[in-house]
Write a structure and sequence with these properties.
By secondary structure, this protein is an alpha+beta fold. The protein has one domain: L-fuculose-1-phosphate Aldolase, CATH 3.40.225. Helices cover 38% and strands 14% of the residues. A hairpin with a 3-residue loop joins strand 6 and strand 7 (171-176). The structure holds zinc ion. Zinc ion binds at residues 88, 107, 109, 146, 170-171.
């Protein structure tokens, strides 16, 4: 059973278990090393289950997670564990406030995708077909201080039209209708970035033929309208 693919009727316990599982996947695949990154899921219309700050996301227990409202106020936290909500909570809440379809958010520091922002190379839509087939354009924000409300402001204009956003010299944030989709976007983002970085290292980057781009853009618009 895929625990990351939850319906809107999932219980709080289901959400906690799926976030713990996704955290383990992100850690094991190198997308969230050390205590980097954070994951959340919408619980009902106006509250969110989110990971704690300062902990490795590969070694969480369901009780480590907190519940906050859309203003960031803590609704529920295990009193014995004394966890604090993710330092990037404001960025997660910005996405939930703007788009009712978003039910899961992941912020990570994928090394190849982040390296593109450090090198000043925009994330390309015309090198691998899977970008427009399964992800869509990925913009890069200005630099904003990590763990600050400024990060929420930096992504604010971009949330509406994107499934994934790169944060300059910092990392990435992806959205999904469930955790499975948000994770899939993150994995695709990093996988494409790795190929692009490798091609740059090899010294040549072949772009997709111009005549193929209209068909790929059509696939993207079909995906968006689903
Ligand atoms: Zn970060």
């Amino acid at each position: 059973m895929n625990h990351l693919h939850l319906s809107s009727f999932a219980t709080e316990r289901d959400l906690r278990l799926s976030i713990v599982e996704a955290g383990r996947i992100c850690y094991a695949s190198g997308l969230m090393l050390s205590n980097n990154g954070n994951l959340s899921m919408r619980l009902g219309g106006d509250s969110v289950v989110i990971t704690p700050s300062g902990m490795c996301k590969g070694r969480l227990e369901p009780e480590d997670l907190l519940i906050v409202d859309l203003d960031g106020q803590i609704i529920k936290a295990d009193s014995k564990r004394k966890r604090k909500a993710s330092s990037e909570t404001a960025m997660h809440l910005e996405a939930y406030r703007q788009r009712a379809d978003i039910r899961a958010v992941i912020h990570a520091h994928p090394s190849n995708a982040t390296a593109l922002t450090v090198a000043g190379i925009p994330f390309p839509v015309d090198i691998l077909p899977e970008v427009l087939e399964g992800l869509g354009p990925v913009p890069t924000t200005r630099f904003a201080l990590p763990s600050s409300d400024d990060n929420a402001r930096a992504i604010s204009e971009l949330v509406k039209d994107h499934n994934a956003i790169l944060i300059r010299n910092h990392g990435a944030i992806t959205f999904g209708t469930d955790l499975d989709e948000a994770l899939s976007h993150l994995e695709r983002l990093e996988s494409v970035a790795k190929t692009v970085v490798t091609a740059h290292l090899l010294g040549n980057v072949n772009h997709l033929p111009d005549e193929m781009m209209p068909a790929l853009r059509e696939l993207y618009f079909k995906m968006r309208s689903r």
